[in-house]
Amino acid sequence: MAESLFIPTEASKEEKYGAILPQIEALISGEKDLIANLANISAVLKESFGFFWVGFYLVKDNQLVLGPFQGPIACTRINLGKGVCGTAWKENKTQLVPDVDAFPGHIACSSASKSEIVLPFSSNGEVAGVLDIDSDKLADFDETDQVYLEKLISILEKTM
């Protein structure tokens, strides 16, 4: 796939996801390097939706370690069960958080972050990392984001 992206400008959130998911799949399907794929996925999501922060944490030495991302600097390491990312990893379940200040144990990597969605992804039956997306707006994520981002995670897991 060429290094170009078609993002419908006057589209609903659902239409944008519908447009970018096949492009992401085409972009990463021929590439086996995980870091390259995570970097491109981060860039596509940031460019498509203008999220405050989009990135990945990878499980290494029993911690989540910062991987490819787009946005301001971030926490480098997160322990199992700590914050939204550590909880998604521990529970192996998407965390949809409309107000991060109301999430018990939230780790404030940036005070500008107001809402968050975190999705775990697996390799060989084990959580390998999480996709973390932050917004500087309260309640910016909903079930539409969850449904389409979980589809994205399925696409990613096929390449691992």
From TrEMBL:
Domain GAF, residue spans: 46-153
Pfam families noted in UniProt: GAF_2 (PF13185)
InterPro entries recorded: GAF, GAF-like_dom_sf, Phosphatase_reg/MetRdx
Family from the record: Belongs to the free Met sulfoxide reductase family.
Protein name, per record: Diguanylate cyclase
Organism: Belliella aquatica
